[in-house]
């Protein structure tokens, strides 16, 4: 069975722009394909994985305050909904993004418990995201910096 582009269902819809942006509403494209087309599903999976990698690389260029992290949480929810709408549901990727956002939002004193408890994330992986916090260099828990706490497994 060969795949032809005519088998893709492409739908675009307007998304309201930011009230302060002064820009017209951008067009968002929704892509779906019949379940029977394995090649189409594989292509959508690759698109989702590459979008996820690009998004993570982009986010790791910034530092986030708690307010910024709350805005990011909303954006990640919207992104996750769009990805699910495309049919490329990679739950592990979505879980990683949500873990990153939760690490950015919670208080420094709660970080160790959340990372070791509900997230079950290695300290090395957690440190990648903790370094994005605005308070990373200044926050102390029990007299230790966040870098010191998460430097060891």
From TrEMBL:
The lineage of its organism: Eukaryota, Viridiplantae, Chlorophyta, core chlorophytes, Chlorodendrophyceae. GO terms for biological process: exocytosis; Golgi to plasma membrane transport. Pfam families: Sec10_HB (PF07393). InterPro entries: Sec10-like, Sec10_HB. One of its GO terms (cellular component) is exocyst. Residues 41-141 form the Exocyst complex component Sec10-like alpha-helical bundle domain. This is Exocyst complex component Sec10-like alpha-helical bundle domain-containing protein. Coiled coil: none annotated.
């Amino acid at each position: 069975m060969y795949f032809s582009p005519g088998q893709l269902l492409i739908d675009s819809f307007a998304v309201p722009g930011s009230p302060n942006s002064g820009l017209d509403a951008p067009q968002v494209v929704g892509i779906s394909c019949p379940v029977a087309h394995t090649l189409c599903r594989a292509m959508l999976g690759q698109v989702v994985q590459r979008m996820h990698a690009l998004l993570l690389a982009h986010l790791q260029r910034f530092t986030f305050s708690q307010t910024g992290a709350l805005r990011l949480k909303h954006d990640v929810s919207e992104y996750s909904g769009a990805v699910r709408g495309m049919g490329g549901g990679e739950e592990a990727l979505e879980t990683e993004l949500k873990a990153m956002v939760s690490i950015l939002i919670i208080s420094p004193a709660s970080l160790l418990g959340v990372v070791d408890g509900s997230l079950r994330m290695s300290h090395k992986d957690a440190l990648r995201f903790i370094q994005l916090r605005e308070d990373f260099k200044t926050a102390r828990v029990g007299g230790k910096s966040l870098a010191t706490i998460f430097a060891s497994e």
